[in-house]
Each structure stands twice: as structure tokens, then as C-alpha cells.
Write a structure and sequence with these properties.
The protein is about 15% helix and about 30% strand. The chain is an alpha+beta fold. The strands form two sheets. The protein has a five-stranded mixed sheet with strand order 1-2-3-6-7.
């Protein structure tokens, strides 16, 4: 038996973000499975209200963030940061999927920084939205792409850069966690 409980950094980071977005004073609690083998669930959110409890489950997929390179062709749009995700099977156990990439907003900084200085770019998908996204994650030739990617200069404007057959830089800014937290709140509402 493992005597030590550990939590991956992206899960820790997003648990903290969710605690701020869904505060305890409003009846929310962020739950972390103690088993590392809990299939399809990395975090859960509990809402207590009127003597009842509701729970939604979250799966987290994290990516390193890569710096953009100068384009090979003039007129090609590049971004300061890119995430890269491997295609995955969407777990039935997860109500929501979070795609997260952590980045350093000022790469030229030479003064010491703390962990608070780093930022994350996190997208929130419902289970059904993630399934549709994976179905449409295609190469230019129309075959399932084994990877997908998002690019951004700052997290207020996020675009799909790989996995889109048409390579049109589809905007995904509307799926940012802070903009969609209401989806989790609505899923946890208890009817009277």
C-alpha cells in the first residue's frame, strides 16, 4: 500500500481555481479521489443545498505549453503559446472535461518568480461536447488525427491549431473555464 497521497500539478491547480470559482460559502466542495486508479475522474464538485447533495465529476487533460516559432510562410498566423494533446477516449464517468495548459506570461523575465506568476489556459467541455470534438478531430485528409492543439497569445483568445480538417483556426475562447463555470453551477442545482 502506498503511504503517500500525491496529486498531479494540473489537478492541484484546477482544484484551487474551482474552489475560488465555486466557494464553500455557497455550498460547494471540491473533492479529490484518493485512488490514483479512479477511472475517468480526477476531481468532483459537490453542492450541498436544502439538505440534499449533488455531484458532478471532472476529467483533466493537461498539456505542456510550447512557444510559437516564426512561420515558414508569410501570412501564416502564429501564436505565442501552443498546447498539444493526444487524442483520447472520452470517459463516460466524467460529466465535464478540462483541457489545461500552463504557461509563463513573460518568458523574458529574469527576476525570481513564485508559482502564482504562472498562468493556465483551461477550456471546459461537457462530456457530449468533448465526444463531438473528438469525432471532428481530423487530419486534412479526413482521417482521425492522433493529436490536437490550441494556440493563443493570451488566454482571452484561444484557437484550434491542429485537429481541424479545414485548418481555419476555429475560436475556442467561449469555452474558457472562467466563462463557462455556470455550466457546472447549473448541473449542480437542486430543484425544489
Amino acid at each position: 500500500m502506498d503511504p503517500i497521497f500525491t496529486l498531479q500539478w494540473p489537478e492541484f491547480l484546477l482544484a484551487n481555481r474551482l474552489q475560488k470559482l465555486l466557494p464553500k460559502k455557497d455550498g460547494y466542495s471540491i473533492l479529490i479521489p484518493t485512488s490514483r486508479q479512479e477511472k475517468g475522474i480526477d476531481l468532483a464538485v459537490l453542492k450541498k443545498s436544502q439538505g440534499q447533495n449533488r455531484v458532478v465529476t471532472l476529467q483533466i487533460k493537461a498539456s505542456r505549453t510550447y512557444f510559437g516559432k516564426p512561420p515558414k510562410r508569410e501570412g501564416t498566423k502564429t501564436f505565442s503559446f501552443y498546447t498539444w494533446f493526444n487524442r483520447f477516449d472520452v470517459p463516460e464517468e466524467a460529466d465535464f472535461i478540462l483541457l489545461s495548459g500552463m504557461y509563463a506570461p513573460d518568458t523574458g523575465r529574469t527576476k525570481p518568480v513564485t508559482a502564482k506568476w504562472y498562468r493556465d489556459c483551461t477550456l471546459l467541455f461537457t462530456n457530449d461536447e468533448m465526444k463531438r470534438f473528438m469525432q471532428n478531430c481530423l487530419t486534412v485528409g479526413g482521417k482521425p488525427d492522433k493529436m490536437f492543439s490550441f494556440g493563443f497569445d493570451d488566454p482571452s483568445a484561444v484557437f484550434q491549431t491542429r485537429g481541424d480538417r479545414e485548418r481555419k483556426l476555429k475560436p475556442f475562447s467561449g469555452l474558457l473555464l472562467d466563462k463557462r463555470i455556470k455550466l457546472i453551477q447549473e448541473a449542480l442545482e437542486i430543484s425544489a
